[in-house]
Amino acid sequence: MIKVLFFAQIRDQLGLSELQLPSAENNDLTTLLENLKLRDNNWLSVLSKGSLMVAVNQTMQADNVVLCSGDEVAFFPPVTGG
Amino acid sequence: MIKVLFFAQIRDQLGLSELQLPSAENNDLTTLLENLKLRDNNWLSVLSKGSLMVAVNQTMQADNVVLCSGDEVAFFPPVTGG
Amino acid sequence: MIRVQTEDFNQQREYDCLREQSSVGAVVTFTGLVRDMNQGEQVAGLTLEHYPGMTEKSLAQIVLQAKQRWNILACTLIHRVGELTLSEQIVFVGIATAHRKDAFAACEYIMDYLKTQAPFWKKECNSQGISYWVDARESDNSALDKWS
Amino acid sequence: MIRVQTEDFNQQREYDCLREQSSVGAVVTFTGLVRDMNQGEQVAGLTLEHYPGMTEKSLAQIVLQAKQRWNILACTLIHRVGELTLSEQIVFVGIATAHRKDAFAACEYIMDYLKTQAPFWKKECNSQGISYWVDARESDNSALDKWS
Predict the structure, then answer these.
(1) Domain topology for C2-32+52-119
(2) Beta strand pairing status for D2-5 and D74-80?
(3) Gap between the Cα atoms of D39 and D54, Å rounded
(4) Residues 6+ positions from B27 with CB-CB distance below 8 Å
(5) Nearest to A79 among C53, C90, C118 (CB)
(6) Is the pLDDT of residue C28 over 90?
(7) What are the tens digits of pLDDT across the range A24-78?
(8) CB distance A77–C91 less than 8 Å?
(9) Out of 3.10.20.30, 3.30.470.20, 3.40.630.30, 3.40.50.720, which CATH number does the structure's domain B2-76 have?
(10) Given an 8 Å threshold on Cβ–Cβ distance, is A60 in contact with C58?
(11) What ipTM was predicted for this assembly?
């Protein structure tokens, strides 16, 4: 399974902070994101934002990467700490 | 009279921290400096350094300025505070 | 030394640790505080959310990059999470070096990267008691240009 | 607030004054310390000479220029004179602003100008007890280029 996390506005807008997805049908980041967008119009709109940031195993990703069972994927808005 | 001050290495090398000069014969900075250099070879050598800094009435000067009685002229090496 | 914590921190204590070595000639500190106005809103306080695990990892990476770039004798980075009220301390970056140029550059570099790379999110509360997520500032992204 | 003094100063006290206003979002401090090595010499201590009267005037001018250039909410500049031993504090510059960029820039600007314009001279004493005047560093002059 792949652990998927959502933070800040993204979590609020989806109403969900965490879910588990089967790794077989989500073998790379692009596929996983496309699968999530298919859930409904709200998921499509929230996850289609150009500003969406993605981390795989707690490292920021700009491009597609291969995913394996046990990986942790996180979606969040631009960071605003400091 | 014009008050002339020397600081740090310049003072040590001249063996003098302060002197008074008549304003009539020292009516601008260049003339005053030339008059001091005429004192002896040590004064000539110490005051001929390219790095010599000059302040008139406690403001740094890069060019010649007119001097009047009561003015304060200071000669010192490049500053090294901070 | 990197810390992510709910507790406040003490400027003097952090400064004293930074200046301990006798080779230190310069200490630069940055402290970020909750200020009363942000993006046109009168701010009463804020909540700082983060991504535990990734936060520490990304801060360690930013500090490592700074250490590879400048001669740093000591470095402290503290970021608070949770609820903060007006004028409270949010973040501390302290750098000790032999020469001032390195200390200024490393301190600003760490803040610039933290602002765009470390997974913290601010939810502000305004004077009417309304909460809202803070928008990222474009100027924080363009601040990175000077380091490339 | 500008002070030229023989006494030591306290980082926390100066920092607390700087962050007093509720509009302050960023505080940057610089502290210069007597370090153990300088220009290849093992340093035991130093004496700071200055030009009384001109010192205060030149520091005030430098701070004024910084205030004309950046939005500064509070600024503190302290420079010590007299005898200092190893690891002692020499100079403090603290800047409070709304945004961090102004605080970093103003703090470094004040130090860069102080290093080349304010009439202080250091006489170091090495570990053999020999005293000598410190040479000005060419890098301090070239540091001014970034502000023009």
Answers:
(1) Aldehyde Oxidoreductase; domain 3 (3.90.1170)
(2) parallel
(3) 28
(4) B66, B67
(5) C118
(6) yes
(7) 999 999 999 999 999 999 999 999 999 999 999 999 999 999 999 999 999 999 9
(8) no
(9) 3.10.20.30
(10) yes
(11) 0.95
